[in-house]
Amino acid sequence: MARDTRIGVVGGTGAVGTVTLGLLEEHGFEHVRVFASARSAGRIVNGHTVEEATPEALSRGDVDVFLFSVGTSASRELVPHAVAGGATAIDKSSAYRLQDGIPLVVPEVNGRRALGNAGIIANPNCCTIPLTCVLEPLHEAAGLSRVRVATYQSVSGAGAQAMDRLAGERPADHDLRMDWDFDGEEFDEESKLRAETRKIMELPELPIQATCVRVPVMVGHAEAVWLETEEPLSAEQARALLEAAPSVRVEDFPSPGKAAGIDEVLVGRIRRDPTVENGIALFLASDNLRKGAALNAIQIAELVLDGTLAAA
Ligand SMILES: NC(=O)c1ccc[n+]([C@@H]2O[C@H](COP(=O)([O-])OP(=O)(O)OC[C@H]3O[C@@H](n4cnc5c(N)ncnc54)[C@H](OP(=O)(O)O)[C@@H]3O)[C@@H](O)[C@H]2O)c1
């Protein structure tokens, strides 16, 4: 379906931005402009001439929806100008995710939060999105009481420069990395996963603990998840719930390679955890640039534009 909506992609030269441009074409958006910093102004990306994302350019009122994938400080500076010009701004940085009054949205989980909103809508972290897609149907059926997660996050999650670095590195030099801000106890990636999952699922007290690492894989994040439920839930029941869940595909052995380039979150290794009461262990993988970032934001835009949950 062709769409008349005027879309501005801010950060259109980056890892998420370039994937966003391809997905907008797939989703029928024909009026797309690309913005980035002064460094890239004038470059051609996917057939679009890059414009500098100045406050004046963003607040001119000639764009309906801005999709931001710039860093947190650039988002803090630029997003308010886009909204002042009357646009809806869907922001993929962590600048607004936990701010009261700003919806943090995964359409399959809490899409209703995006409806009727005409200002800023925040797009969650690339691990939070697939995790909540998988947890929500299990929570609805049996009530979550605890979640533990270990992530295996690809290098594209750290942006285009990190991808260039990995491409130029000798395999013998590959290693795990932990390239997030450390507060002396946790990386901010781990606390984001906890706080964002609680906000999206509206479970403010949910016990959830994460250990995040970056692995030398180009695209696709994986997560090992151990969860406990209030009511008994067999592995077979969990599998059936996940087979019926939107945007989730059950796959015996999910991997980043299988998830890269597709829209669904892959989930498998669904089994009982015999070490706790009502425990389930599972493994998921998803494309961090698509469902973890660009695709989720476009689905939010479609929800807002259509004013209905039908698109979720
Ligand atoms: N990568 C992921 O998997 C992922 C997933 C979820 C969320 N995110 C979030 O999305 C954002 C972008 O991530 P990325 O991985 O795409 O990073 P990236 O590859 O480094 O791209 C950054 C983009 O932001 C632009 N930019 C930087 N500073 C700017 C400024 N002051 N004004 C205008 N544009 C500016 C850059 O433009 P130039 O070309 O001009 O430098 C580039 O287009 C980050 O907030 C990140 O946390 C990323």
Write a brief caption for the model.
This protein is an alpha/beta fold and 312 residues long. It has 10 helices and 14 strands. Helices cover 32% and strands 25% of the residues.
Characterization of this structure:
The strands form three sheets. This protein has a six-stranded parallel beta sheet with strand order 5-2-1-6-7-8, sandwiched between helices. Helices cover 32% and strands 25% of the residues. The protein is globular, with a radius of gyration of 19 Å. Helix 9 links the parallel strand 12 and strand 13. Helix 1 crosses helix 10 (290-306) and helix 5 crosses helix 7. The longest helix is centred in the C-terminal third of the chain and has 17 residues, at 290-306. The chain is an alpha/beta fold and 312 residues long. 48% of the residues are buried. The chain starts with a strand and ends in a 6-residue tail after the last helix. It contains ten helices and 14 strands. The mean pLDDT is 96. Bound molecules: NADP nicotinamide-adenine-dinucleotide phosphate (NAP). The site of NADP nicotinamide-adenine-dinucleotide phosphate has 29 residues, from helix 1, helix 3, helix 6 and helix 10.
